[in-house]
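Students often ask what a 'structure token' actually looks like in practice. Rather than answer in the abstract, let us consider TIGR03016 family PEP-CTERM system-associated outer membrane protein, a protein of 518 residues. Its sequence is given first.
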Amino acid sequence: MRALSTSAVLSSIVLSGWLTGVTAQNVNVDAGNALSSVPDEQATGTEDEPVGVIPQPSIDSPGMVLGATLGELYTDNLKLAASGKPKQTSWITEIQPFFKGAWNGPRFSGVLDYTMTGYLYAGQSRSNQLAHDLKAHGTFIILPQHFFLDGTALYGREVINNELPAGSGTFFLNNNRANVARGTISPYWVQDLGNVGTMLLRYTLGRVIYNHHGISGQNAGLLNGIPDITSKALQFSVVSPAYQTWGWNLAYSDQRIEPDFGRGIEYAVAKLGTSWQINDNTKLLADVGKENRFLLDGTSRKLGASFWDVGFDWSNTRDNLKLLVGHRFYGRSYQFSWMRTAALLTTAMSYMEQPTDLNQQLLGQDPGAIVTSPAGISYIPSLRNHQTYLMKRATASASYTMPRGSLRLVLYDERRTYFLLDNREERVANANIDWLFDIGASTTLTSTFGWQRYQFQDGQIIYNRYTQLALVHQVNPNNFGSLRLRSDSRNVQSGAPGTPGAHGYRVNVLFLQWTHLF
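Now compare that with the structural description of the same chain:
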């Protein structure tokens, strides 16, 4: 497999606009713009943005933000040495310029979020690292109201093997990460058919590239056997007008995952759905169709299985509830979502089932795209695992606003059943809670506790726990800093005694950062 240089990958991004990547980790000492620990909930430049949160331009609120972060980190376990093994302490200096921008014009709209981070290790000059993180999405209007061109791009680092130690970002010299570029380019046509409804025809070309750059020579073999992949997807749908009492939809989608070497994977679904609006709050739903049947030998039969589901969608001013029960090729199936928004308390729950694989989730082409917790931990399989599995994912969250702060709880559980002769399973469960307390108008103190249980196919179980205390102070809108104390631990129950690299560790971190916005 070729090893692309960082400059070559970034040049490809500039030229084509569709390479992408994400960051996953087992131990999280957030290496992003660290005063914002919840990227999906960062401010958008409004007057009530939280203390120490970097403004996030959006399509609805276009603009640009340019800044730099300087940080100093002390760790008592630089290489994540196992319990009972000699540990190495070190200071790490972080230099991190970043740019965030959003545009919304008559022909083009898009967002760009780019960060370059340099890590300087005291006494480890040969280990100094440079990391790039890119998130971008844009839409170009070719023919108004009809023909559009979408592009997405991300570039970042992924954990290669979740069974081995993996520190946050590029911190800690564990060499268990690879640069991953991934993205899509997608032309599509939208046609208004009047009383018949709206038609969509879309083609999406995607690419995932795994990059050796940054992995030391003695660990370069971790990426052996992991091919780059190309994704080709076709989507067609016709949806009836929303104002009709009786509604219907017709849809067909087909996605082909084609690795540079090895066997490909195909996902195809043909569906006919109906709905009946029985009152202002309630709508009855029903779907029938065909989908690929994934067999126990790892192959699939295109549109070889029938499916159906029935349910309802109910909503009022505070609640939105949806429930579907049906049958698919693997047996009874369920889909559930509920969200309640009150004055001080917001709660949400969801459950979904979906055949998928690592690359499909990386490309975000299915409803089970990568989910990231507020702690910044992603729950994708190891990069070395490219087999298809049945994902059953449940999530729950609650956020409570108090007079001087906020409290948040997040729960996550995902079971993966791999379509192999023995239907091997993998399971990830996670819980974390954080309490943000407003000390004053410009200072917050946040305490966080998180726990994760990761059970692998071979029976090995890894428990990750972390606690963090973060003090953030904002001097003015353009200058703010943070001091964080964090402790992470990892315990291993090995299903196969003597498994190489399977060990627990404990690491304590002190991290001081200062951010300036230009």
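One point worth highlighting: The mean pLDDT is 85. Ask yourself how you might have guessed this from the sequence alone, and why that guess would often be unreliable.
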